[in-house]
Amino acid sequence: MTNRVNFAKTAPKAFKALIGFDAAARAGLDPALVELVQIRASQLNRCAYCLHMHTSDARKAGESEERLHMVAVWHEAGHFFTEKEQAALALTEAVTLIQGGVPDDVYARAAGQFGDEELAQLLALIFTINTWNRIAITTAKVPGTDERVAQ
Q1: Residue 101 has what DSSP assignment?
Q2: I want to staple 48 with a disulfide (CB 3.0 to 4.6 A). Which of 55, 93, 131, 143 is the partner?
Q3: Where are the alpha helices (DSSP H) in 1-151?
């Protein structure tokens, strides 16, 4: 099926609310960390549209190709990422793949690296990228076509 609803046009209030939530979630977080979280969630959700968008954004922001290639295997290549980034990636995986809850050790690791406010921001970011992934997948967004400029 190729004719899917354009969520931004057919649900503009919901779309604008999500944009606002996304902007609020990012506030105060390191932009490099934001992209790593969005990349990892998009990998886990198999959202090619968002993965392309966020790897492109990360490159434009100066992220190295080496680190971008290692995000998918960060457990085995932890030395490419700071402790804080690793904690964020672990929390991203736990929230994205939620299976019986977020494990206490994963939450505690993140809480040890982020203050309460920053941790809440990180959680909001994880929630928003998972929502964006589901919108892009459900509406069959084509990878490589960044529609943000059209909004």
Answers
A1: S
A2: 143
A3: 7-10, 12-26, 31-45, 48-60, 65-70, 83-96, 104-113, 116-138
Between CA 69 and CA 95 the distance in angstroms is 22
User: Which tens digits make up the pLDDT trace of 36-75?
Assistant: 999 999 999 999 999 999 999 999 999 999 999 999 999 9
- Cβ neighbour number for residue 70 with a 10 Å cutoff: 16
**pTM for the predicted model, two decimal places:** 0.92
The Cα–Cα gap between 35 and 68 comes to 10
Cβ atoms of residues 94 and 106 within 8 Å: yes
* Nearest alpha-carbon partner for 95 in 25, 6, 147, 31: 25
* Residue position matching structure tokens 């904690």: 87
Q: Are 123 and 95 in contact, with CB atoms under 8 Å apart?
A: yes
The answer to whether the CB of 103 falls within 8 A of the CB of 94 is yes
Q: Give the pLDDT confidence of 101-129 residue by residue, as tens digits.
A: 999 999 999 999 999 999 999 999 999 99
